């Protein structure tokens, strides 16, 4: 059975994620220590104790990456190995860890920096994002093409697109898209216009940090957000991660690429079930099994025989 590990993006984080694994094995507790050192954060306090920081981008990103990488390690130690990986936006860093491209420590360290850079890229209140439900991508692209400062941020799945950009431009885009026949257009509670050209400087700053990371040749391929193409070399990884910050996330296209690769099972690694929802609307014939707790691995083992 050809298996893909897929990782969610920011928004699914919750207190207690991966705690069942950390309390079950010393190797996972050791990863928490490494994560705390890499991000200069008390990860136990951030991830397992009630707090508001878990939803602040700068802290959300390394915390979610830590949780997903711990679960990945547990899967690998259980003998469940992916043939290919992919991650939605932030999740691409977990994908790189699973593919053997990036170390756990670098993934955590870089996403702390990434979160901080993204949060500070545009002054508060000057950017915005909105989810568009029930309208195809081409119609949305045509609706906003003449609105300066409004772009598509995410191609999540058929019927779900996210727009991004300058606050006034996004508000105008919401009106135009609603008039074009969208079922719903919902403003998102985010700290900036992510995946827009407004973050190009942020991408350049992140690239400078990426220069200090060790990038290995992929042990297995992964699908990149920027172009939805299978990456089998480490040569372009830093450039792709730089561009990812200010380019649209081609997630629907990524799922179709996994289908083209012959993937027969997607393992959604981490909290939430957003990936499963997108798969159901894009490639409903591919089953998805979510793994967020130790008992989920047992169920997965039974599924794959």
Query: In the CATH hierarchy, what is the superfamily of the largest domain?
Result: Malonyl-Coenzyme A Acyl Carrier Protein, domain 2
Mean pLDDT: 97
Secondary structure class reads: alpha/beta
Question: What radius of gyration results from the CA coordinates?
Answer: 18 Å
Unreliably modeled segments: none
Extended strand count? 10
List keywords for this structure.
16% strand, four-stranded antiparallel β-sheet, 305 residues, 2 domains, 13 helices, Malonyl-Coenzyme A Acyl Carrier Protein, domain 2, Alpha-Beta Plaits, six-stranded mixed β-sheet
Structural write-up:
The chain is an alpha/beta fold and 305 residues long. The protein folds into two domains: 3-121 and 197-304, Malonyl-Coenzyme A Acyl Carrier Protein, domain 2; 127-187, Alpha-Beta Plaits, CATH 3.30.70. It is built from 13 helices and ten strands. It has helices spanning 19-22, 26-39, 43-48, 57-77, 91-98, 104-120, 137-144, 167-179, 200-210, 237-246, 251-260, 274-282, 294-304, and strands at residues 3-7, 84-87, 127-133, 150-157, 160-166, 184-187, 222-223, 230-231, 265-269, 288-291. Strands 8-7-2-1-9-10 form a six-stranded mixed sheet, with helices on both faces. It has a four-stranded antiparallel sheet with strand order 4-5-3-6. Strand 9 (265-269), helix 12 (274-282) and strand 10 (288-291) form a beta-alpha-beta unit. Helix 2 (26-39) runs antiparallel to helix 4 (57-77).
């Amino acid at each position: 059975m050809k298996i893909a590990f897929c990782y969610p993006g920011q928004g699914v984080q919750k207190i207690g994620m991966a705690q069942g694994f950390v309390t079950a094995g010393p190797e996972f507790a050791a990863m928490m220590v490494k994560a705390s050192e890499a991000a200069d954060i008390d990860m136990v306090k951030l991830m397992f104790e009630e707090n508001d920081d878990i939803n602040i981008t700068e802290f959300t990103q390394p915390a979610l990456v830590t949780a997903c990488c711990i679960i990945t390690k547990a899967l690998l130690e259980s003998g469940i190995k992916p043939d290919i990986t992919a991650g939605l936006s932030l999740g691409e860093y977990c994908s790189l860890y699973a593919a053997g491209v990036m170390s756990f420590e670098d993934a955590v360290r870089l996403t702390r920096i990434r979160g901080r850079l993204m949060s500070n890229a545009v002054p508060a209140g000057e950017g915005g994002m909105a989810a568009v439900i029930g309208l195809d991508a081409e119609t949305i692209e045509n609706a906003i093409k003449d609105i300066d400062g409004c772009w598509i941020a995410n191609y999540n799945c058929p019927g779900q697109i996210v727009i991004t950009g300058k606050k006034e431009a996004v508000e105008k885009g919401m009106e135009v898209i609603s008039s074009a026949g969208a079922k719903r257009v919902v403003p998102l509670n985010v700290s900036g216009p992510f995946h827009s050209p407004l973050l190009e400087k942020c991408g350049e700053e992140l690239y400078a940090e990426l220069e200090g990371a060790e990038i290995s040749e992929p042990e297995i391929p992964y699908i990149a957000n920027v172009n939805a193409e299978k990456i089998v070399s480490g040569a372009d990884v830093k450039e792709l991660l730089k561009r990812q910050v200010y380019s649209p996330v081609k997630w629907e296209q990524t799922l179709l690429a996994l289908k083209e690769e012959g993937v027969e099972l997607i393992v959604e690694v981490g909290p939430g079930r957003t990936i499963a929802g997108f798969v159901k609307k894009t490639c409903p014939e591919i089953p998805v099994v979510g793994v967020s707790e130790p008992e989920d691995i047992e169920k997965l083992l039974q599924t794959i025989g």
